[in-house]
Amino acid sequence: MTSSQRSSLILTHKWLDLVGLVLSFMAATAWASHWHLDQIKEAILTSRPGHTFFFGVLLIGWNVCLSSLGLYQSKRLASWWAELTDTIRAVGCCALILAGLALVAEWRSVGRGALLGFCLIAAAVLFAIRVLKRVVLRQFRLRGRNLRRVVIVGTGARAQQMASLINDHPELGYYLIGFIDNVKEPGVVGPLDRMAEILSSNVVDEMMIALPIKTFYEEIANIVRVAEDQGVTVRIHSDLFNVRLARAVAEQLDDTPILSLYTGPPVNWLLTIKRIIDIIGSLALLSLLAPLMILIAALIRLTSPGPIFFVQLRLGYNKRRFPMLKFRTMVVNAEKRQAEVEHLNEAQGPVFKLRNDPRVTPLGALLRKTSLDELPQLINVLLGHLSLVGPRPLPVRDFERFNEYWFNRRFSIKPGITCIWQISGRSETTFDEWIQQDLDYIDNWSLALDLKILFKTIPAVLRGTGAV
What we know:
- The structure is a single chain.
- The termini are far apart.
- This protein has 15 helices and twelve strands.
- The protein has three domains: 3-142, no CATH class; 148-237, NAD(P)-binding Rossmann-like Domain (Rossmann fold, 3-Layer(aba) Sandwich), CATH 3.40.50.720; 269-463, no CATH class.
- Strand 6 and strand 7 form a beta hairpin.
- By secondary structure, it is of the alpha/beta class.
- Helix 9 packs antiparallel against helix 12 (377-383).
């Protein structure tokens, strides 16, 4: 695609966005004010010159907002979620501009309802425009148009992987010119020391670097400078360290580009939704179960001396310690008597489990069997120590007996009240299986998985399978 064609495409995209925003504004205003089509026409025809001026300012403001937020940069490698979040952020900015101008110009029809409607409609319209654009450009690229010419620096395994991705995904619109490396192989267009000459004498839109950083650090730094001098976009293979589990995510720290390696779920809006679900869920369950919890508290006080709650230090996110609440199911000095029953431990590994623990009270045995002793942990969820779903928080005693460092990856996500362990036999599961289930949960985490575990926890608790 030539620069003039690209400019025409961007200009068309901008006009479509502005038309979409205007139509969204009109639809939201009509919806909030209960206008009919003839009323909208009359309002447009009888608008004062001052309103027309402010409307022009609004269009200019929207255009500047969308352009400054990078909505018209190349999105070939952007995911659908990235497009959606960029669109929502841009619509929020446009809504602020609209609210400010409506206040200055005294547009009484633009109230809170109209602004809310504008945000919802505009987000849907602008995202639909981007979906349409992707579909159209995909067809162009599959037909050999709208291509970006790229060279790959290197010829090793990473370079071959990138070449395969380009060849396997023609819809991305990349045309591979060849490789640049200090070897004489088919497809190599020249050595590294002729980089500037190669870029100057060829039409090159992008350069993908796939060299080992440790060995070629100085060469890569020089290559980036050469590409920067000639205005060529540089992409670097992000799997720099051959990690087994971590996922690489490009981020920004102020003006500094950062490559982050996550072994657990990256901190994003999905985790925010998970936290919102935790807050709403814990509040709802505490309200619903309050009479039952009061009854259990009264029975504990009546049947055995000592406090109602058992408070124990547990390890949370990244091994942060927090006081976890449970209804007391044992005698008061149970932790001090731990040494007396250690030799009776029925669990494998560093954890302690004993079915007929002599320290457990008669009421406590019933509470454990039905998992009702766990209900106060909803308070921990509300406070942010726990999530509704996540690996179970371990006591300090169990953690100090870990004999493998890789066990610690289970702490890379916030612990929870229930997880895969609870719905697959609980204490009937071996320690190694337990850890592996926690790691599988971390590696495959999604909101859908959380909901699935929550729904399966209820029948598992009612059956009392594996409870101690």
